Amino acid sequence: MIKVESLESFSKSDEGPIALTFEEKNGALWIKLRKHTEQKLQKMRIRLEADQDSTETAKIRGRILELKNFLTLDGPEER
User: Fold this and answer.
1) How many of the other CB atoms lie within 10 Å of CB of 75?
2) Which end of the chain is more exposed for a tag (fewer CB within 10 A), N or C?
3) In the 8-state DSSP scheme, what is residue 72?
4) In terms of pTM, does the model score above 0.90?
5) HEC states along the chain?
6) What pLDDT does residue 14 have?
7) Within its chain, how far is the Cα of 18 from the centroid?
8) What pLDDT digit, counting tens, does each position of 4-37 carry?
């Protein structure tokens, strides 16, 4: 089993240099993916507010972190 000290440290070490170009950010595909991901993120946040055991809460927090990381792809253009 892989031991991860914290979700925050894991996400920071997993960051890559990927960023979308201006054209990609404004394309129909990214707009659809962003909308879909934002909807999933909202559902995960609602699930997080429900009464869960600590394992399920950790799983949901991990999914939220991954969705938020995905949404950062349209951050500042670096290419």
Assistant:
1) 11
2) N
3) G
4) no
5) CCCCCCHHHHHHHCCCCCCCCHHHHCCHHHHHHHHHHHHHHHHHHHHHHCCCCHHHHHHHHHHHHHHHHHHHHHCCCCC
6) 58
7) 14
8) 455 555 555 555 668 889 999 999 999 999 999 9
Nearest to 61 by CA among 41, 39, 33: 41
**Number of C-beta neighbours around residue 60 at 10 A:** 19
Q: Which tens digit of pLDDT belongs to each residue from 32-65?
A: 999 999 999 999 999 999 988 999 999 999 999 9
Query: Structure tokens of 50?
Result: 């429900």
- Residues in the chain, overall count: 79
- The CA distance from 11 to 66, in Å, is 8
Terminal alpha carbon distance of the chain: 37
